[in-house]
Amino acid sequence: MLPNFPFRRSTAKCTSYIHTANERRLGEVIGTNVAGKLHTGRSRNDQIATDMRMWLRDELDLIEEHLVDLLKVIAQRAKQDIDYIMPSYTHLQRAQPIRWSHWLLSYATAFQSDLERLRFTKKNINKLPLGSGAVAGNAFGIDRMQMAKELGFESLIMNSMSAVGDRDFVVEVLQCASTIGSHLSRWSEDLIIYSTLEFSYIKLADAYTTGSSLMPQKKNCDSLELLRGKSGRIFGAMTGLMMSIKGIPSTYNKDLQESVQPMLDTVKTLKDGLQIAARLLATATIYPDKMRAALSPDMLATDLAEYLVRKGKLVLYIRSFITSLANLSAGVPFRETHHLAGKMVALAEDENKGMDELTIEQFQGIDKRFGDDVLSVFDYERSVELKDATGGTSRRAVLEQLEALKKTLGG
Amino acid sequence: MLPNFPFRRSTAKCTSYIHTANERRLGEVIGTNVAGKLHTGRSRNDQIATDMRMWLRDELDLIEEHLVDLLKVIAQRAKQDIDYIMPSYTHLQRAQPIRWSHWLLSYATAFQSDLERLRFTKKNINKLPLGSGAVAGNAFGIDRMQMAKELGFESLIMNSMSAVGDRDFVVEVLQCASTIGSHLSRWSEDLIIYSTLEFSYIKLADAYTTGSSLMPQKKNCDSLELLRGKSGRIFGAMTGLMMSIKGIPSTYNKDLQESVQPMLDTVKTLKDGLQIAARLLATATIYPDKMRAALSPDMLATDLAEYLVRKGKLVLYIRSFITSLANLSAGVPFRETHHLAGKMVALAEDENKGMDELTIEQFQGIDKRFGDDVLSVFDYERSVELKDATGGTSRRAVLEQLEALKKTLGG
Amino acid sequence: MLPNFPFRRSTAKCTSYIHTANERRLGEVIGTNVAGKLHTGRSRNDQIATDMRMWLRDELDLIEEHLVDLLKVIAQRAKQDIDYIMPSYTHLQRAQPIRWSHWLLSYATAFQSDLERLRFTKKNINKLPLGSGAVAGNAFGIDRMQMAKELGFESLIMNSMSAVGDRDFVVEVLQCASTIGSHLSRWSEDLIIYSTLEFSYIKLADAYTTGSSLMPQKKNCDSLELLRGKSGRIFGAMTGLMMSIKGIPSTYNKDLQESVQPMLDTVKTLKDGLQIAARLLATATIYPDKMRAALSPDMLATDLAEYLVRKGKLVLYIRSFITSLANLSAGVPFRETHHLAGKMVALAEDENKGMDELTIEQFQGIDKRFGDDVLSVFDYERSVELKDATGGTSRRAVLEQLEALKKTLGG
Amino acid sequence: MLPNFPFRRSTAKCTSYIHTANERRLGEVIGTNVAGKLHTGRSRNDQIATDMRMWLRDELDLIEEHLVDLLKVIAQRAKQDIDYIMPSYTHLQRAQPIRWSHWLLSYATAFQSDLERLRFTKKNINKLPLGSGAVAGNAFGIDRMQMAKELGFESLIMNSMSAVGDRDFVVEVLQCASTIGSHLSRWSEDLIIYSTLEFSYIKLADAYTTGSSLMPQKKNCDSLELLRGKSGRIFGAMTGLMMSIKGIPSTYNKDLQESVQPMLDTVKTLKDGLQIAARLLATATIYPDKMRAALSPDMLATDLAEYLVRKGKLVLYIRSFITSLANLSAGVPFRETHHLAGKMVALAEDENKGMDELTIEQFQGIDKRFGDDVLSVFDYERSVELKDATGGTSRRAVLEQLEALKKTLGG
Fold first, then answer.
1. Which of A228, B211, D274, D374 is the most exposed place for a label (fewest CB within 10 A)?
2. Partner-chain residue, chosen from D192, D199, D215, that has the shortest CB–CB distance to A96
3. Residue A43 scores a pLDDT above 50
């Protein structure tokens, strides 16, 4: 007996030999004579393509649901925690103060874009291959539009060769899933860092951490690490399938069977991941006092520079891109104020003080234009409120983001 | 002097230090005092994100054009060569007769889907990040919608952190490009095989082949091989960037600089590739006689099986999925006729003849239901015409595909 | 109840919670009091790393066996089929005549290199992590070298942090497997093409083909297509794991759990694939007459050019790289003879004849140096015998390759 | 004029048309008549394969040098900073105290393994393809072994088809480079985190940081982020090339040209990256006081549990794997002491004290076996010294690692 790939039973419910099983089962129900007609003008090739699209269609509905749930949790926390102010980070170095809600919503932007793409992808998938035979079409005058209607497809794949030889609809789902995975991975990375003792901004509920077999004091953010790690798994499914498809001739080749396992695996991983992310965020404890304690006056150096810009008599700032340079001519150039603020940072460092502990004289020693009101700059609330343009950190701007999000979610 | 990454000058026109160059040049034109104001409330972070989106937007327009041109060449050839009949292949084994135009249009389906996705992607890209500062937004009450209008953006990125830390718009383009590359690769694979002496269905124009430094008789399809090979290059750009982005914290990290090179390289590769594909197809010579010569009666075994299905008295075939089983009860089950046709194939093989050279008696020796008209089955024109359902090979069905294609192309 | 990743039971025999199971089972056998000591100075982290290395070590032995078996089948066929002459292909265009055995052995070169790398990789894996605790080492003066000896490891991982946080040994196996997969994929591609009706050089045994549900005449090379397709699956496992590992902090992070599934899956796929490849090749039928029939005189154009080179009185050809130019000064420059041979190809094409059917006069019409013996060039046997340098197609050179192969296989 | 891939001039010094340039230049030097003989029995195919191997061989020498330099810097710092004690992290949560040198050397383990693999790879590359012609070998009795000797190759590629169609030697280098990139990425991730204000263990020299165009106070670890990000670029080169090679027929196909660009780009990226990593580490400032301040008594909970294990009268611990369970029967099971230590952690947390601030009574309230000496456990120096088994954190064990490293480096 020669060895052979066990491709007939390999991958769960959706293998390419489901067809024969279908016919057999049908035979049990309605008699083999009629069941034997199942393949009239039909082939395994157009059947499996149809089955996979129908299955994916339903699963994408679930994924969409879970994505929406995650966005709702984000929205809920963003609303409820809007008063918490924390450092933002660029290059993982403290940058400017932001609202915690602003951080939350930065990922909402990413997941919203995933949602839109998912919807587009779902539409792309929902095209009927059935009625294409093995490769050349159907010779019995079948009405494919009618069939599409009955099976809930929006339109037809217009070429029989393409219908049976295409697994790009799986690739598209996996690419979309990889991007969602990438977002979950960055999100987890942030939260893992925020969960360290050094940051201490957030603590996961016990259900989402595990202990150590050796170290009794440990609480590890396993769930977040798995979310981050599993983005690799999804990516591997996507690249693997693209590799399998690479350069094969048109129409059906058995290589395409390798689309089933990555599809099944990715859908499951993604559904689990999105649900876990949502619950994990919903149940985490936030530590606003730690966030607040991490703010320091030097994070307002930009505010100080901008203070000087405003000191120029009448600042009709750039409400428009085109007219901006003209208007700006009134104030002090930012290039210059940036330089002066830098000097203040250095001075404070030399004095081993916070910038807010320097005297007016010290400020004016650097530049005469610093006024008596300069210390009013060192107020974190004021700083986040000043970023009031759309997309910024002021209460109004954050609520505006929340409104936009709600609109996408349709509720 | 310590070594360092030459990241300041590295990647062509679009590096992240273009900003400083901008300001310097502006200073030369309008004076450094005013130019120094360029960065008021702006940072390199939101500027580069804006620049890249604007550049990509324009390039995607060009790519769309080239994709449309390729589709037009396909449409033109499909129309002009509609009479050529050739073998279709599944598993690279001869399957059923098709029109050459049907093969051509099978790739049109793929490229059309690319076109739709490209248009969706372009829309996704066209969101304005400017006005987000380095991370926390803009403190000068800038009107971002007005800015968007002036710069031709459709909408705003609604969160400043997301605006500066997102390179998913590049990933999305590269994923889209990878799928186009995958299509070009399969298309090239087919054409390379059809260009072998063994197949001889097609010959590239001299401009798209090269000779051998050693073998004077050779003509190699280098262009097709490059199209196939460069799909790897595009894929590598996509996977590489996804890897660079993997798991980095939110907002801007220098890792994101690695989005520039793959973006530039992919856009160029894709633009070149699509243009070459179009011209290469437009100028190739087709050999319909070789295609015709490759057809053999056994490729009509399915037609023979379907002939028997029809012999059942009144075949009201499955015009609908749901009612199909009932209707089918009239004819002979395909499972049975498939088996009988298989016997005829074996008999012809034993006799070392074409099936069309067997006698009526030999047919009826296998099954009495074979009528005197059975030899009429062995007509390739009849066979392609019978596949008349939408997506099939009949002249009508192929012209229907062409119509649908023209609609997508907007002309 | 909150949802959570089912990471505790997920991936078969090798999950990271096997440790607890181990301790439980040990408790059943020797009492929980003693079993409870299992983790003294040990942690799940160094245990799982040890388990995986031991498992892989054994599996690589099996993979090596299968690889050797495949090489033996190749060697056997190469010896037995040494008389068959066929076209070689570059760019899938007919190039020069070769022995079928030469084609077979070209893949032996690839698989041999895989074998060497596999052996190197196995050595790399065989380093003991146990005795590293969770991260900081062992506090009970354990003798790790003794432990290594007992467990069959060659050496120790010399740093405890590295020992628990490293999955590069899995990556290395997967990279190695990906290259083997790549070889199987190219090998399959060749054989799929050689199995087409158009080439007809080879036919798989029935056990390695499948029929069509629609087309009774079809025999598809499913096994080869799966070998080709599954190279994508292996590649996906490799890229996925590399993605999971990307940029995580040092030591153990839960992300590393994602190394188990790709490892298990790849080992299985590779073991199956190698066995199938070997049996498939052993049982295939070769058609030397079809190979012979595919040879044509224009494939000897290079021989014709080289004939002219030799016509230069004394050709002391380049037995050495450095002295070659001097020696070559005796003969006619190849650049010139290549050109002349090209003219003969064109002439034959114009006359619609084989080059061997042209007259001596026609040859001499192109160049006076063509002698009366020129037609002796058009002998395929002579052509393959002339390539007698090591690595060439002469019987001697092919047997030399076989000898070298046997040496690697150790028998 | 038809468009075409500019493949003739595209990729720098190493394109496949260098051959023609070679011949032309040679013609200028020694006359076109002799230069025209360059291609006698040689083709572009075996020439380019030879050129690439020679080039890579030299570049790998340089990469090896840079890798050795990096290891030397690590060794030097590990020796010089051996007294600094810091927290180790698993799951990015503080685990047990280690020496900073131990962290340094954990990456030395990884880079050493890279070094060994690099040396193996270099050997693999160093096989001569020249003398294989275009595909079928050389017909002039060339002595390839002599040629190999003169060109510095260790052995021959034994099959001409394999010699011209193989780019796996590039794949192998890129896989090797990807793993090095992966190590650099994890290393950078650690250092980026250690450079945050929250951790503050290390500060890069100014040459390896950059400022912000908006925030005067910022110092960003751009160099580390680029090292981390560029691991994606290298990975993309590897996956891209593997994709280009996927499933193409044997021997030379133009797709293989796509091996040049990723090779050149990766070699450059890797050489730069390794040098930067070495200098960056050599010039960084370490803050041992911050490391020390980050240690806390709960990180010694494992030591506390191990203290109890030792309390069992005679602990002849597992010097051997096999005899370990018997010997262990003397002490208290770790499973139990782990549990007790966990209780002490909880108690300290409840009391809002360090564990070292609890009274003997409180200890004994949890378990009578805690002796008067229990507080001696809370000594970080003692803790790292106790991990004295090979691979551990004691001074001796760390110096042992250093010795092993020096041996590998050959100095």
1. B211
2. D215
3. yes
* pLDDT tens-digit readout, B29-81: 777 776 766 666 678 899 999 999 999 999 999 999 999 999 999 999 999 99
Is residue B130 a contact partner of residue B160, using CB atoms and an 8 Å limit? no
Residues ≥6 apart with Cβ < 8 Å to C330:
C312, C313, C314, C315, C316
Amino acid A337 reads T
Model confidence, pTM: 0.93
HSE at residue B272, side-chain half, CA atoms within 13 A, is 19
Burial of B35 (0-12, 13-18, 19+ CB in 10 A): buried
CB contact under 8 A, B233 and D240: yes
- Tell me: pLDDT of C380 over 80: yes
Q: What is the ipTM of this complex?
A: 0.91
Q: Are B104 and B74 contacting, i.e. CB atoms less than 8 angstroms apart?
A: yes
Does residue C216 belong to the interface with chain A, where contact is any CB pair within 8 Å?
no
**Angle subtended at Cα D7 by Cα B63 and Cα C299, rounded to the nearest 5 degrees:** 125
Catalytic residue list of A: 91, 212
Q: Using alpha carbons, select from A293, A295, A305, A373 the residue that is nearest to residue A345.
A: A305
Residue numbers of chain D with a pLDDT score lower than 50: 1-16, 313-329
Phi, psi of B89 (to 5 degrees): -130, 135
pLDDT for B213 equals 75
CA distance A214 to chain D (A): 6
- Neighboring chains of C (3 or more beta-carbon pairs < 8 A): A, B, D
In one-letter notation, the amino acid at residue D155 is: S
What residues form DSSP beta bridges with B203?
B285
B242 vs A24, residue with greater confidence:
B242
Burial level of C206, CB count in 10 A (0-12/13-18/19+)?
exposed
pLDDT 10s digits, C98-118? 999 999 999 999 999 999 999
For residue B216, what are its two tokens?
Answer: 């004077």
CB D202 within 8 A of CB D195: yes
Query: Is B132 touching A (CB cutoff 8 A)?
Result: yes
Residue B212: per-residue pLDDT? 82
Chain-chain contact of D196 with A92 (C-beta, under 8 angstroms) = yes
Give me the amino acid identity at B288: P
Per-residue 3-state assignment (H helix, E strand, C coil) for chain C:
CCCCCCCCCCCHHHCCCHHHHHHHHHHHHHCHHHHCCCCCCCCHHHHHHHHHHHHHHHHHHHHHHHHHHHHHHHHHHHHHCCCCEEEEEECCEEEEEEEHHHHHHHHHHHHHHHHHHHHHHHHHHCEECCCCCCCCCCCCCCCHHHHHHHHCCCEECCCHHHHHHCCHHHHHHHHHHHHHHHHHHHHHHHHHHHCCCCCCCEECCHHHCECCCCCCCCCECHHHHHHHHHHHHHHHHHHHHHHHHCCCCCCCCHHHHHHHHHHHHHHHHHHHHHHHHHHHHHHCEECHHHHHHCCCHHHHHHHHHHHHHHHCCCCCCCCCCCCHHHHHCCCCCHHHHHHHHHHHHHHHHHHCCCHHHCCHHHHHHHCCCCCHHHHHHCCHHHHHHHCCCCCCCCHHHHHHHHHHHHHHHCC
Separation of alpha carbons D291 and D83, rounded Å: 11
| Lookup result for tokens 């490059």 | B226
Closest C-alpha among A409, A114, A107, A402 to residue A280: A107
Residue D401 · residue C159 · CB < 8 Å: yes
Q: Is C197 on the interface with B (CB under 8 A)?
A: yes
pLDDT for res C13: 33
How far is it, in rounded angstroms, from Cα C188 to Cα C209? 13
Residue from the list B5, B242, B255 with its beta carbon closest to the beta carbon of D276: B5
The DSSP-derived string for D81-140 is TTT-EEEEEETTEEEEEEEHHHHHHHHHHHHHHHHHHHHHHHHHH-EE--S-TTTT--SS
